[in-house]
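Budget justification, computational time. The allocation requested in the original proposal was used primarily to generate structure tokens for proteins on the priority list. As evidence of use, we reproduce two of the resulting records. The first is shown immediately below.
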Amino acid sequence: MEHAVKPLSRKDIRSYARFIRKLENSDQEYYFDIMNFMECTLPAVYPDFTLSVGTVEELGECHGLTYLNQKEIKLREDVYNGAISGNGRDRLTVAHELFHLLVHSNEPIAFARTTASKIPAYMNSEWQADAFGGELLVPYHLASGLTVEEIIEKCGVSRTAAIFQYRKMHGM
């Protein structure tokens, strides 16, 4: 089910990502250590935050969940371990859930119940969280001059994410 939220452009989302990078003192680094941010920095600046890990049996197909009211992100154990190990897809999942927690927890969320009420991307909570994940892990101000291969290597993202961000940075 899609959720309608406050409109945000990619440029707005890029600004959020840059703010988080600055908070982590990694604004001039290609690789963003998302798990250090989640386990050390975020709890220091957001004391009510909880990061928990659930089993594959418990979470099933769901790689991560954000419980806005509890200020909790729950990651499936294989995703948590993958993110710790630097797996690009898992790191992107964590960044996606982080955006939901930081931005969507402070606003009312509307549910789109039919396909007739298709939500524009810039108002879609999932599109926003995906865009944030890409912008956080592939910093535009540093990576716009890189090739796809360099983005994969320097930013630690999957090939799919690198291609997608490369295309967004170059207006494709």
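The second record produced under the same allocation is shown here.
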Amino acid sequence: MTVGLETVVSYFPDEIMLRSDFDYLTPITPDDMKGPDETRKLRDTFAAEILAERVAKKALESAGLLPSDIDLLVTQNIGGQYIMPGLGTFLHQALDLQKGTPAWNLQTSCASFVDGCELGRNMVLAGIYRRILLVTVTALNTGGWGVDQSTAFAAAAGDGAGATIVSDQNVKFEILSYSNSTYGELYNAMKIDFTSTENPELLVERP
């Protein structure tokens, strides 16, 4: 059986942040921790929900499918207005999926999309589901449980979403292998917690 992806799509908000926008973080940024040249930002309380719905509908349209064609919804989000519930229940309703279609929330941070593809592949191979819609969202600039904008992590924390449909039908990209590595030494540097702003003096004139 060939199992893979029927489509892969992304969605990014319009606001562009350049590396230079984070020059205020220079005093605390390690030399080997430069942010990307460009990130995107969606300053909206409902950023996670907006991104999830738009990228999911884009995936269905790209694959020429209806919500009723989906047997399992798997979502993941970092940031947004809520820690709980996950986006699965929101997106289930927004897409008007059938009541019997499960909605799972997967949380493995950076690897969620890749891990979700591997999970989906195994579920299809096992004959449990036929088509799985996987949606992953990063919404760290909403003012919710996002990243502390006074830390070096802020320069790397953009907003956006990706989606794919894993199945054994109309496969455009076959999944041939799966590999994952975990870098525990980054644990403290990549934290998102509930403490007060770590370096408030750096935020006086930030964009």
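A brief technical remark on that second record: The beta strands are 4-11, 15-18, 38-41, 72-79, 103-105, 131-139, 160-167, 173-174.
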